[in-house]
Amino acid sequence: MKALVLRALALAMVGLFLQGAAALAQEPESPPVQPVASPASATVLKWGADGTSNVPYTFHDPSDENRMSGFEYDIMEEIGRRLGRESQFVQNDWDGLIPGLQRNFYEMVICGIEMTPEHMDAVDFSQPYYMTSERIVVRRDQAGLDSYERLGGHVIGTVKDTLAERMMGERHDITVRGYDEESNMFADLRNKRLDAILIDGPIALFYGEADPDFRIVGPPVGHLSYGIAFAKGANIELRHQVDAALKAMVADGTLHRILARWNLWTPEMAAWTGDYSEPGVAPTEWQRYIAATMPTQGWRARLKRYVSFLPLIGKGAVMTLAVSACAMVLAVGLGLVLALARRYGPTWVAMLATFYIEIVRGTPLLIQILFIFYGLPGLGIRLSPFVAGVIGLGLNYAAYEAENYRAGLQSVARGQMEAATALNMTHTQALRYVVVPQAFRVVVPVMTNDFISLLKDSSLVSIITLTELSQTYVRLSSTYFDYFGTGLMVGGAYLLLGLPFVRLARMAERRLAVSERRSGAHH
Amino acid sequence: MAGSGNPEPAFCVETVLCAESISKSFDSNKVLDDVSLTVERGELVSIIGPSGCGKSTFLRCLNFLEIPDEGTVTIADDSIRRAGGPWKSSDEALAHRLRAHVGMVFQSFNLFPHRTVLDNVMLAPRVVKHVAPAVIEAEARELLAKVGLEAAALRYPATLSGGQQQRAAIARALAMRPDVMLYDEPTSALDPRVAEEVLEVMRALDREGMTQIVVTHDLRFARAASDRIVFMDGGQIIEIGDPDEMCDNPRDPRTRRFLGASV
């Protein structure tokens, strides 16, 4: 599922580059970056997955968004028990999963990763924990697309880098659309942009069959296996322990029971394990999921669901505001230092400040944030997502604030500095009491506008696993397939956050205009 | 000159400011050429001369807003000698001591627009001298009363007339208790009626014994109020003398030409 190798490559390169730099800088007594833990010593078993838009693998329980759920989640809980270690889920964006493995954020990744030869080049796999096939999903009222052969001449959707995509790529009579997000793909099927979907069994079941608008048709297509990924060449001992645990779970029927609860036991699993028994376990998790995501009937029920979103959106909004506010404080402070360094500092300091500003303004914010979160651990600097987000946004906006200040400082008349000097203030005192406060007044309206931009740009920190407003939107909309209603709600939340600052900027502008008019009248 | 040695009786004149051989060039343009001036305590000295004669630059050299290339400035007991070369941080420390004796008033007032009139007056004593706030405020209000602005204490400079602003600027400079006040064309930005308010404050200070050096175009004021007039031209002092004498009988043809054209 999804393009693992190529899309992770950029991140991995940043990481490797820094790791190389770190290795060069390393003191002899400190060993090169080690795997998090030798399994014997650590008690917490950290594993990575993308818990957003990832039903039924590992995802936020729709009936309780604070709880994690999923068949892979259950498998990892069981493996943790068998290894005598507490299993701990670490959220990471899909593109960051493998780099995170190399950065030792966690010891393994379980996220529906298909055991293809290409993937085996990038990571080491455990034995398979799940086998399934590709299934065809169509709109409920649609007929005639009920076999792989009959997909010819149609527009078929699938997720990038899946077996389905590779298979259909060889058929010239099919127009293939590759998606990053399952939920987008099913939205397109609903909107008739697609005629059918060919996708991994679990996704077909939970996104397709679970939805009254869709159904699975025709026989299974192809065969695929999922494995747990470990960093290449590292943690071999742990990998063997996990393999042993999986083997035991197959032998005593535990894996069968977990999969049965999720309605995910497949003929492929039966053939592989030789376990054709009926475990007598009801598909409770499957039923719970169906009940929780059932399309609501009538506006009352719909409203009730939206109201139930409010606490989550509120939490997201608080996170967005917190990250933005902290970043802005950093930006305003550092920006002033940069501007003063440029205008009043010695030549080499001024050049350094200019260099910084040009670098920051000349590179994308997204890259800067990824670099700080994934790249810096290579130099031994590990930051929490919140701190990394604040620093990333703050350092970036500081460059822009520095430019604002520069304009502000230039707008302060030269006579002000002279008057302060004549009053025997030192240079620093003159700046602090006379020049900077005046520059600040000019800069405030612009700064307020920048803060509104920052509020919106803070959505970028969702890629380093912070659950702010945008991430909340992705999570809610992909759980309930409701992009429209949740989109309006989240958009509204952004507006509500920004509105006070828009008004503040207007007020500041008006005040400035008035005081300029007044002073203009007498000069 | 103060500290020059021989103890004089109390009634004798005391030199408070002494500028010796001040020279200053901007790029290759020599603006001041070997200018010397001595001012006694309590004197009001006016510096006149055509535009570009160097009179403002000379005034600004006295408190090192402009740094002379060569020459010595002595005010009260502090002295800085320049003989070319770069301006070092040790020089800046000397200038800091020297500026403590000097107040300055600018043509464009240069009040701090983000502070009230009272704050303008109080700021420097507070941050430079660290005087207790209660003491500063009492003194500041007294100074504002002296320049006729007690009612405007809490207003912002932008809401005042030009004459009021200049009087506030004088109060601000006086708050640092200077030995010498320097005025750089204090009334040039004001219309004559308003200028009179400012000149009246300067006359009152003169009566109190304040030492004042005024760069001005206002010959009537210079003649009526000054103890001495300095005429500058081409970066040099051409003539120093008693106001009436200089105005009625200028010795140098350049002075004659300037006064003839001006009056």
Strand content of the residues of chain A, in percent? Answer: 5-15%
**Overall body shape of chain A:** elongated
Shape field of chain B: globular
Number of helices of chain A: 19
Largest sheet of chain A: 5 strands, mixed
Profile the largest sheet of chain B. Answer: 6 strands, mixed
- The counted number of beta strands of chain A is 10
Membrane topology (chain A): Multi-pass membrane protein
Keywords (chain A): Amino-acid transport, Cell membrane, Membrane, Signal, Transmembrane, Transmembrane helix, Transport
Function (chain A): Part of the binding-protein-dependent transport system for glutamine; probably responsible for the translocation of the substrate across the membrane.
Transmembrane segments (chain A): 317-341, 353-376, 483-502
Give your account of this protein's structure.
The complex is a heterodimer of chains A (about 525) and B (about 260). Chain A has about 525 residues and is α/β, with parallel strands linked by helices. Chain A is built from 19 helices and 10 strands. Chain A has 3 domains: about 1-25 and about 300-520, MetI-like fold; about 45-130 and about 225-295, 3-Layer(aba) Sandwich (D-Maltodextrin-Binding Protein, domain 2); about 130-225, Periplasmic binding protein-like II (D-Maltodextrin-Binding Protein, domain 2, 3-Layer(aba) Sandwich), CATH 3.40.190. In chain A, helix 1 (about 5-25) crosses helix 14, helix 13 (about 345-360) crosses helix 15 (about 385-410) and helix 17 (about 425-455) packs antiparallel against helix 19 (about 485-520). Chain A is elongated. The termini of chain A are far apart. In chain B, about 45% of the residues are buried. The interface of A and B includes residues 423, 434 and 437 of A.
